[in-house]
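Blinded run. Sample ID left blank on purpose so nobody reads anything into the name before looking at the predicted structure. Input follows.
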Amino acid sequence: MQPSIFNPWAWRDPSALAGGYTETTPSTGPSQEPDGGHDGPDAPGPGTPVDLVGYQVQARDGRIGTIDEASDEADAGHLVVDTGPWILGRKVLVPAGTVERVDHLDRVVHVDRTRQEIKDAPPFDPGSFDPEYRDRVGRYYADLHVPPPGAAPRVI
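Blinded prediction complete.
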């Protein structure tokens, strides 16, 4: 059985933060449509950094809100999500390790948590992003981590 290592603050797939679409390769970029194409990002292709601010966030069971702030710092990656009226306009801190995938065409970030799990997370306070708060949030999400089938759980 392979161990499953979960670091709540590390992006599972850092390449998800780069521009590009499923139909692109190193020799071909996104299709260019004369009318401006879709409403997705206008990143020129793979490897182009993409700002996730404004992307929608989707939990396993529904929409959470919109990304207000994103960090791709090593071992400190996170999203600050504005939940709008869903939980009375509260913002929540979502560690990068919970991100399953990023759909750049539809501008949606998918996380592997439920709406209730995110609602029950420690409240976000932008003035208290200290190590103690970060540890508390990290432990909360790490305790909810479900390793892939056949993997032994291991949290760092």
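Unblinding after everyone has recorded impressions. Confidence is low (pLDDT under 50) at residues 22-41.
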